[in-house]
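re: ur question from yesterday

yeah so i grabbed the chain u mentioned. its 107 aa long if i counted rite. heres the sequnce exactly as i have it in my notes:
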Amino acid sequence: MKRIYLNEKENEKDFIIERKEKQYKFPKLILIMRSELYRGMFLSVTEDTSNKVTDYSELSNKSFQIFEYWIYSNQIKEGIQITQEIIKEIETRNRLFSIKSNKSKFI
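ran it thru and got these structure tokens back, copy pasting raw so excuse formatting
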């Protein structure tokens, strides 16, 4: 998949999400397309958020894998069992996005 960026400045291409001393870089444009939280963060603030790091250490490995796959594909990986516990963790503790009742897609 080719990366699409909001601008060409090298230090502003990615947004960093940190988990347990490891950093994951996500293209800002994809985060804007997939999440109202990030859309609001990047499009409505005037401060520089280019190098901002969000810590997701409290998110379980399974929940983070679901989040990461969804960010890039806009769907939940086939065969993944999403329990009510995972839904609650993603929606409530991290306020990333909502999960439709059919659990097939994040909005």
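noticed a couple things. Helices lie at 28-34, 36-44, 61-73, 84-93. also The radius of gyration is 14 Å.
anyway ttyl
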